[in-house]
Design a protein that fits this description.
Chain A is mainly alpha-helical. Chain A folds into two domains: 72 residues, no CATH class; 225 residues, MetI-like (MetI-like fold), CATH 1.10.3720. Chain A is built from 14 helices and no strands. Chain B contains twelve helices and no strands. In chain C, the strands form two sheets. In chain C, strands 6-7-8-3-9-10-12-11 form an eight-stranded mixed beta sheet, sandwiched between helices. Classes of the chains: A mainly alpha, B mainly alpha, C alpha/beta. Chains in contact: A-B, A-C. Chains A and B meet through helix 1, helix 6, helix 7, helix 10 and helix 11 of A and helix 5, helix 6, helix 9 and helix 11 of B.
Chain lengths: 313, 282, 334
């Protein structure tokens, strides 16, 4: 098991290195001199040259790359051009809404998706299954920003139950934050529940046809116990995977929803950085998001060992 | 013989009525895109300030937008850009993905490198990677296609590689190799024919994702230029008027849902029919 | 049949239907058999003959919603003395019997135990449900049961997971699980087929010993006549979903009446060596089983078949404690 985790850790480092490489070189494809961009339209050629030197932009690209990698490895993601502060700080300031949005969204998705998937598998082919599968299919194909706009119109503008947008005043009580996150989390929860429903249904169907489920029935256990303890217990590994991956992808994937609801999260930071061509911020955000993704993957692997005794030995 | 097996194929595919309905809807949307100039009741770009933000009426079935342009006509024309971009993404990612997938699955030496790059690309959420790529490449329809192709190619690579790994061990490939058939021929004929069906299924899904993602990018202002009517840009430019005129946002969104949903249902139908294991389970 | 000792289990003219993609099939059509307390009845037949379906129908474990009992009765005498029809018993009542009065051991020890629960938990779960014991005493009972099925270090192994055990050990666990609530009927569906020959013998001896100690009836499903000779008191032979012959193990082995039974016996190594060629009788591979045709189902493969065999359905003929489903058994025997 430790060997396996070690190997995972190794491939994690490789993946992160590749992400960093990709981000660095692709950014260099961008039209325009980063120094000129930083200084704006009024800059003189002299100013630009000086800045190029300060940022090491006059060095060969490979040297720049290695220097940049060194910085990243020590946790320094560079300086934002427009925000006038370290990228890592800018991201940290935006982390809270993104974190809670991802947490609430994945909770909604799991709380809706897992029971629906179980029901769909247990009553396979029946009306429940058809309704659940149909709704899951629909949910997977709704653009989240559009659903967000519709929800804002319905529940915020017309009914006034929730704030229209934003994250509340700084220092507002947590309940107010929750109120601001309710609509976006519901939207993302609905859209992301589709995958969880499908995975839960498929893995429950697999497990329900296993011999040990028949054994459990032959012991005279109630159907509820057979399904929840014997079948669900064995279907957990793929379900945990999909829930974990959903959470991981929500950290940087909620860009559109954050924009619609005006949540000052990482997604919002990226969008404004893109519109302002603030490349250090985009690069930093990509590295952080990919890092969180691979870390959650590692976490899922560790959770397996608690769920499935076969992995432990 | 050929004809009867095709008939059997179709009958199996459309056994579920929903798949048939989705297929018809899909064809209708495609036709609408192709025949836009003949179908659209108005010019999509004609500005009529006096008729701005009018609700659905007999003159403008789905209402008008903030410039008084006919929404139905813009949706009809928008289908061209939205579906066109989606289709282009599908073609590019299928071609490139199949190529790399075959290489990864057939040549051990390339497998590690290719799959690590795939892992790296998939460590980033679709939309984040797409917006980053569009940001560095510049916002244009061509670059949106390029960016989304880079985003979805890894999925195709994974599918093709997985099937290739299975198929390369099958007796008939062994036999071909033993008979001295060249590697290129084994790849191009034997394996390619056999990975075709999972790739085809993946293609319909990617089509649906691409339509959704294009809308998302356009909505964020990082997609195609707003002059070009796509369903995403329509929602983006309409959102600030949603309070007064919900139809500006509602109908383009419904068009996206309908297109993506029918693609997905058709893809599901294809998969159920092509996957013998699943077919038995149904 | 044993009129003086009322049967523990009495299956009468059982019919089971399955809905499939190609329409309905009837894998079991006319199975009659009985098991008395303390008796071991072997249900013999090749794969696809409907013997496993019969056992699943008895447990009410037919795969739903495809399979259902469409005819006949499965009478079971409860410990209370009351006799119930398992085919029509409401599910909650059936659940009270499953695991408590009727227990089952399955063919595949490798997949029949839940991989994420310890073997102790799996046994204790049944004990707690049916015997009303608490958590600790149920686990203690589980350890005792492991001890009873001769698993060494039972106290320690009760906390192990199935994947930590060998196939033979797991089958012992399955037996311990089945026996944990002292059932009056044990259904064993090919319990030794997946095991090595030496382990097979041990498991058979174990089942016999436990049967003597607890005094339960055993319905032993197998395709292996060697196993039958070793363990059974009586034998019921099935072919294509029907019972073709029933009798005590001694009589049936000595003077088989149905050509199919003779054919099976001739395939036994001991007889084949004596020069009787079994292949003479069985002439072809069985066709689509489960589709009801006219006449004797075995006729197409039977070396002794005449036109009359294909004319109409053949009834199960019962005489004393033997029955046979063959028109010409007297002629053939003579």
């Amino acid at each position: 098991m430790w060997l396996k985790l070690g190997r995972r850790l190794g491939s994690l480092v490789i993946v992160m290195f590749l992400v960093a490489t990709m981000v660095f070189f692709l950014t260099r494809l961008a039209p325009g001199d980063p120094a000129a961009l930083m200084l704006g339209d009024q800059a003189t050629a002299e100013d630009i040259a000086r800045l190029r030197q300060v940022y090491g932009l006059d060095k060969p690209i490979l040297v720049q790359f290695i220097l940049w990698l060194k910085e990243i490895a020590t946790g320094n993601l560079g300086q934002s051009i427009f925000l006038q502060r370290p990228v890592i700080q800018a991201i940290a300031e935006r982390a809270e809404p993104t974190f809670f949005l991802a947490l609430f969204s994945v909770s909604v998705a799991a709380l809706v998706g897992i029971p629906a998937g179980i029901a769909s598998a247990v009553w396979r082919g029946r009306l429940v299954d058809q309704i659940v599968s149909g709704l899951a299919m629909l949910a997977a194909n709704i653009p989240s920003f559009w659903l967000g706009l519709i929800f804002i119109q319905l529940f915020a503008v017309r009914l006034g139950w929730f704030p229209v947008a934003g994250y509340g005043e700084p220092g507002a009580p947590f309940m107010e934050r929750v109120l601001h996150l309710a609509l976006p989390a519901t939207v993302l929860g609905i859209v992301n529940s589709a995958l969880i429903v499908r995975f839960t249904r498929a893995s429950m169907l697999d497990v329900l046809s296993e011999d040990y489920v028949r054994t459990a029935r032959s012991k005279g256990l109630s159907e509820v116990r057979v399904v929840l303890r014997h079948a669900f217990g064995n279907a957990l590994v793929p379900i945990i995977t999909v829930v974990g991956l959903t959470a991981a992808l929500l950290v940087g994937g909620a860009i559109v929803t954050e924009t619609v609801f005006g949540l000052p999260g990482i997604g919002n930071l990226v969008v404004s950085a893109v519109l302002r061509r603030d490349y250090p911020v985009i690069q930093g955000a990509l590295i952080v998001v990919a890092g969180i993704y691979v870390l959650i993957n590692l976490l899922i692997d560790i959770i397996y060992t608690f769920v499935d005794p076969r992995v432990r030995y | 013989m050929e004809q009867s097996s095709l008939l059997l194929f179709l009958r199996r595919m459309f056994r579920r009525k929903l798949v048939l309905v989705a297929f018809v809807v899909l064809c209708a949307i495609m036709l609408m895109a192709l025949l836009a100039p003949w179908i659209a009741p108005h010019e999509p770009t004609t500005i009529r300030v006096v008729r701005r933000l009018k609700p659905p009426s007999e003159l403008n079935w789905l209402g008008t937008d903030e410039f008084g342009r006919d929404i139905l006509s813009r949706i009809v024309y928008g289908a061209r850009a939205s579906l066109g971009i989606g289709l282009a993404v599908v073609l590019v990612s299928m071609t490139v993905g199949t190529l790399f997938g075959l290489m990864a699955g057939y040549f051990r030496s390339l497998d590690g490198i290719i799959m690590r790059v795939v892992d790296a690309l998939m460590a980033l959420p679709d939309i984040l990677l797409a917006i980053f790529l569009v940001a560095v490449l510049g916002a244009s329809a061509f670059n949106v296609v390029l960016a989304l192709s880079i985003v979805y190619t890894p999925r195709v690579i994974r599918v093709v590689r997985a099937s290739t790994l299975v198929i390369r061990e099958l007796p008939f490939v062994e036999a071909a190799r033993a008979l001295g058939v060249s590697t290129r021929r084994i790849l191009s004929v034997h394996i390619l024919l056999n990975v075709a069906s999972p790739v085809l299924v993946q293609a319909t899904f990617i089509f649906a994702y691409a339509v959704l993602a294009e809308a998302g990018l356009s909505f964020l202002g990082a997609g195609v230029p707003p002059e070009l009517p796509t369903w995403g840009t329509m929602i983006a430019s309409g959102q600030q008027y949603a309070d007064q005129a919900f139809w500006v946002v509602l109908f383009p969104g419904l068009a996206i849902v309908l297109a993506a949903l029918s693609l997905q249902v058709v893809g599901d139908g294809l998969r159920d029919m092509l996957d013998p294991k699943l077919r038995k389970a149904l | 049949m044993n009129m003086d000792t009322p049967s523990l289990l009495s299956i009468q003219d059982l019919e089971v239907r399955f809905r499939t993609e190609d329409g309905e099939v009837t894998p079991v059509r006319g199975v009659t058999l009985s098991v008395s307390p303390g008796e071991t009845v072997a249900l013999v037949g090749e794969s696809g003959s409907g013997k496993s379906v019969t056992s699943l129908a008895t447990m009410g474990l037919l795969p739903r919603p495809a399979g259902r009992v469409s005819g006949g009765k499965i009478l079971f005498r409860q410990r209370s003395g009351q006799t119930v029809d398992l085919a029509t018993l409401p599910l909650p009542d059936l659940r009270r019997l499953r695991g408590a009065e009727i227990a089952m051991v399955f063919q595949e020890p490798m997949t029949s135990l839940n991989p994420v629960l310890t073997v102790g938990e799996q046994i204790a779960e049944s004990v707690r449900l049916h015997m009303g014991l608490g958590h600790a005493s149920a686990l203690k009972r589980a350890a005792e049961m492991l001890d009873l099925v001769e698993i060494p270090n039972a106290r320690r192994r009760v906390h192990e997971y199935p994947h930590q055990m060998s196939g033979g050990m797991r089958q012992r666990v399955m037996i311990a699980l089945a026996m944990s609530c002292n059932p009056s009927l044990l259904i064993a569906d090919e319990p030794t087929t997946a095991l090595d020959v030496t382990i097979q013998a041990q498991i058979l001896v174990l089942i016999q010993r436990l049967q003597r100690e607890i005094g339960m009836g055993v319905l032993f499903i197998t395709h292996n006549l060697g196993v039958v000779a070793e363990i059974a008191d009586r034998v019921t032979v099935m072919y294509a979903g029907q019972v073709v012959e029933t009798g005590s193990v001694g009589e049936l082995f000595r003077t088989p009446r149905h050509p199919y039974t003779s054919a099976l016996l001739n395939c036994l190594p001991a007889r084949a060596r004596r020069g009787e060629d079994g292949r003479r009788v069985v002439q072809s591979i069985p066709g689509s089983i489960g589709k009801v045709g006219n006449g004797c189902a075995f006729a197409p493969r039977c070396g002794q078949a005449t036109d009359s065999c294909q004319a109409g359905s053949v009834l199960l003929e019962t005489e004393m404690d033997r029955s046979v489903r063959c028109l010409r058994w007297r002629e053939i025997l003579a």
